[in-house]
């Protein structure tokens, strides 16, 4: 059985979830945890040499982060084991002209980000969190307390609501955040808490302010916003901090914008991971051909949550391939390449987990309910690297408040260490 470092606790994961209401906050929190564990931050804008890239290092850019530990061998392009996850979650984001004053209310003009479950955002106490930019280009992270709410219509005004709730995202999901006497613009509010002399632009998410909580008779369940996919990010960072250097280059990549297709500078479809790997190899004296050779015999573990068997909707699952909570990460298979898992990558991951005494499960969707996708196929396509998609089983994916087990995130982190060892 893999030994368990002291920070491999669900409380460490809960602290991370509560500290990370936006991808920018997640990257800030992970950056601090990496620094605390002895990592050194590199700047993408600096020149790198072998001294700067060797050891425990990381870079961050906006809502994305890449960290690595180099092996003790001097080989310029060692074999690699990458762990990937994503920092973003479906939510509402503030539009450029955010104030609406109507019918006696102050409201927020918001845009839907990713595939939200509309109803899950109703009647929650919402805060604003993310990055603000001043007129002169200064940036700051901001986070408010609960200040907004998307109020549901009373049942007396919609007697048929329980026969099927229909929500128009433009008209029914506009948050309120006060009464417009006295009126105060949201920009003024953001500026006050930012400490900047102006606020001109922003990347601001709405988030449910209810902290993460353990549920269940034996407190075996974890409820929180953003479980998809911060539990995988937590597992990746926690494992990298704890693992000892091996003969592999150990890499984690936390991408933004997975929920909207990954096509961005900081998404898995962007060039940042490939550029960082190229620069590490070059700084160690290798060539692009050396990198290509190493990638051909390396592996990527793409970690993103999976659908656990829902007891109220058993007909939505293929029961031979329906993971359950707290029985280990699910290996996700889709022959149409919505997941990148191959028989080779599956065998390698499953065997290393089994040798470490860790349980795994399998997920495959029903043929009449197509599954989602994630960063695994995109990373495999960009790098030509053998990839496996795995994930913590959860319910209520893309709800404002999701549910998983307290054991699976820890098992996932242990599985990364088993693969790196
Ligand atoms: Zn996800």
Describe this structure in words.
- The structure is a single chain.
- It contains 10 helices and 20 strands.
- α5 packs across α10 (408-420).
- A hairpin with a 5-residue loop joins β7 (126-133) and β8 (139-143).
- The strands form 4 sheets. Strands 1-2-3-13-4-14-18-16-17 form a 9-stranded mixed sheet, sandwiched between helices. The protein has a 5-stranded mixed sheet with strand order 11-12-20-19-15, with helices on one face.
- It has 2 domains: 10-89 and 225-420, 3-Layer(aba) Sandwich (Aminopeptidase); 91-208, Aminopeptidase i, Domain 2.
- 26% of the residues lie in helices and 25% in strands.
- Bound molecules: zinc ion.
Please provide the count of β strands: 20
User: H/E order of the elements?
Assistant: HHEHEEEEEEEEHEEEHEHHEEEHEHEEEH
Note the total helix count.
10
**What would you say the CATH architecture of the largest domain is?**
3-Layer(aba) Sandwich
Q: Compute the separation of the termini in Å.
A: 13 Å
Proportion of β residues? 25-35%
Structural class category: alpha/beta
Strand order of the largest sheet: 1-2-3-13-4-14-18-16-17
Rounded Rg: 22 Å
Look up the CATH topology of the largest domain: Aminopeptidase
CATH class of the largest domain: Alpha Beta
The tally of structural domains comes to 2
Ligand kinds: zinc ion
Uncertain spans: none
Helix amount, in percent? 25-40%
Overall pLDDT: 95
Basic shape: globular
The biggest sheet amounts to: 9 strands, mixed
The CATH homologous superfamily of the largest domain: Zn peptidases
């Amino acid at each position: 059985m893999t030994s368990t470092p002291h920070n491999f606790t669900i409380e460490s994961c809960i602290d991370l979830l509560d500290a990370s209401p936006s991808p920018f906050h997640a990257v800030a929190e992970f950056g601090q945890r990496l620094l605390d564990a002895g990592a050194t931050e590199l700047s993408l804008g600096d020149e790198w040499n072998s001294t700067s890239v060797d050891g425990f290092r990381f870079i961050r850019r906006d809502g994305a982060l890449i960290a690595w530990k180099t092996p003790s061998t001097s080989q310029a392009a060692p074999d690699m084991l990458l762990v990937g996850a994503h920092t973003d979650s479906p939510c509402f984001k503030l539009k450029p002209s955010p104030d609406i004053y109507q019918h006696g209310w102050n409201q927020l003009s918001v845009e839907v980000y990713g595939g939200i479950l509309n109803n899950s955002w109703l009647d929650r106490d919402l805060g604003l969190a993310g990055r603000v930019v001043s007129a002169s280009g200064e940036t700051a992270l901001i986070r408010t307390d609960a200040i907004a709410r998307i109020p549901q219509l009373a049942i007396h005004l919609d007697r048929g609501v329980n026969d099927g709730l229909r929500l128009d995202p433009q008209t029914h999901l506009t948050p309120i955040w006060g009464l417009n006497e006295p009126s105060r613009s949201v920009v003024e509010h953001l500026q006050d808490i930012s400490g900047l002399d102006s606020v001109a632009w922003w990347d601001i998410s709405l988030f449910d302010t209810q902290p993460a909580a353990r549920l269940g008779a034996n407190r075996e369940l974890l409820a929180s916003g953003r479980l998809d996919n911060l539990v995988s990010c937590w597992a990746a960072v926690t494992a990298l901090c704890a693992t000892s250097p091996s003969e592999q280059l150990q890499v984690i990549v936390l991408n933004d914008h997975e929920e909207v297709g990954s096509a961005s500078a900081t998404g898995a479809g962007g060039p940042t991971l490939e550029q960082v790997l190229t620069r590490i190899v070059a700084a160690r004296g290798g060539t692009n051909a050396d990198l290509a050779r190493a990638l051909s015999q390396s592996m990527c573990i793409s970690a993103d949550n999976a659908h656990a068997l829902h007891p109220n909707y058993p007909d939505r699952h293929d029961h031979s391939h329906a993971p359950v909570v707290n029985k280990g990460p699910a290996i996700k298979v889709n022959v149409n390449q919505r997941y990148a898992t191959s028989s080779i990558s599956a065998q390698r991951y499953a065997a290393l987990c089994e040798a470490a005494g860790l349980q795994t499960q399998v997920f495959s969707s029903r043929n009449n309910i197509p599954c989602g996708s994630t960063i695994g196929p995109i990373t495999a396509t960009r790098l030509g690297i053998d990839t496996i998609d795995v994930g913590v089983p959860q319910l209520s994916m893309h709800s404002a408040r999701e549910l998983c087990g307290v054991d699976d995130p820890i098992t996932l982190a242990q599985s990364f260490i088993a693969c790196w060892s």
